[in-house]
Amino acid sequence: MPKVELRSGESQEQLLRRFRKKVAKSGVLSAVRRKRWHVSKSELRRIQRKKAIRRRKRLSRSKRQKN
Q1: Structural element, H or E, at residue 59
Q2: Tens-digit pLDDT profile for residues 16-36
Q3: Please, are residues 2 and 22 in contact by the beta-carbon 8 Å criterion?
Q4: What pTM value is reported for the model?
Q5: Residue 2: which residues within 8 A CB-CB, separation 6 or more?
Q6: DSSP 7
Q7: Sign (positive/negative) of CA torsion 45, 50, 54, 56?
Q8: What is the rounded CA–CA span in Å between residue 1 and residue 3?
């Protein structure tokens, strides 16, 4: 679990923002969401393949726009 301590002169909002960033970087929330329901291996592979296709499309689109 990420841990942050209040720095001198730091507001509660800044502390909370720093904590949220640490939580996001550590991947705690994504792991919790992923483990919330059981996902079979075949379903996981299907999801990963779908993400890879979207990623490739996005990359090819950005390359075309640069040229």
Answers
A1: helix 41-66
A2: 999 999 999 999 888 888 889
A3: yes
A4: 0.52
A5: 19, 22, 23, 25, 26, 28
A6: P
A7: positive
A8: 6
